[in-house]
Input
Amino acid sequence: MRGRALSPALDAYDLSHGRCPADHQALSLKPFFDVIVVGAGHAGCEAAWAVARLGLSVGLCTLSRETVAHMPCNPAIGGTAKGHLVREIDALGGLMGQAIDATGIQFKVLNRSRGPAVWSPRAQADKKAYRNWMRTTLETQAGIEWVIGAAAAVLVEGGRVIGLRLEDGRVVRCRALVVTTGTFLNGLIHIGPEQRAAGRLDEPAVRELSASHQRFLDEPAG
Ligand SMILES: Cc1cc2nc3c(=O)[nH]c(=O)nc-3n(C[C@H](O)[C@H](O)[C@H](O)COP(=O)(O)OP(=O)(O)OC[C@H]3O[C@@H](n4cnc5c(N)ncnc54)[C@H](O)[C@@H]3O)c2cc1C
Output
């Protein structure tokens, strides 16, 4: 989504209204970035890295620095389809291939008993080492800053994205926004007859951003 720069309308937002979890204090929140990336999963880390390497400033919005590049359960990189994807990202100068080379504990080519069309490289990672490697690499790249918090709403003016509001009320402005929030928006867990709102294990449900997307989609175009 492309956005127009700075809008006076945003000055009306209360920039100081933040509930600050521990890691907020250590990390200043810049009020403007060229690009904001929401979600520091696989896609978000690559997006932030690519933007920073273009020489632009990027705010990488994540619920916590502890969950950067966190893998859901089986900590595998690759497999059928994804193995090709990771190699393409690698060829473009991305991070996943480097990260798994540095932190992999088992490397295998799957489907060797079948034809070459379905061979697929797959590596198992040390889950903790993988996310630490990714976080450290992003932190040493000039231009990337953390925006710690849950994204709540994409701010749009005149049909263009101008910024992001976090659930704690803070507002960050940007020229462009990349949303890579994975598969857990408006997440619902089913355990037997019980249903409850939840994100990935140990992560809260993300409700407000889903509602913001819905409002954006409901708006008539033009
Ligand atoms: C149970 C399960 C098992 C899987 N097993 C495998 C496997 O073995 N091998 C494999 O290759 N793939 C596996 N996958 C798929 C793989 O995890 C996904 O394809 C991959 O994580 C998608 O990357 P992503 O960056 O799009 O999303 P994610 O990795 O999910 O990252 C999205 C990030 O956005 C953050 N986020 C969400 N909402 C907000 C918000 N409002 N504000 C700020 N941050 C936000 C989340 O906290 C998360 O960190 C599995 C998926 C699941 C659900």
Remarks:
- Residues 1-27 have pLDDT under 50 and may be disordered.
- The chain has six helices and eleven strands.
- The first strand starts at residue 32 and ends at 38.
- Residues 76-125 form one domain.
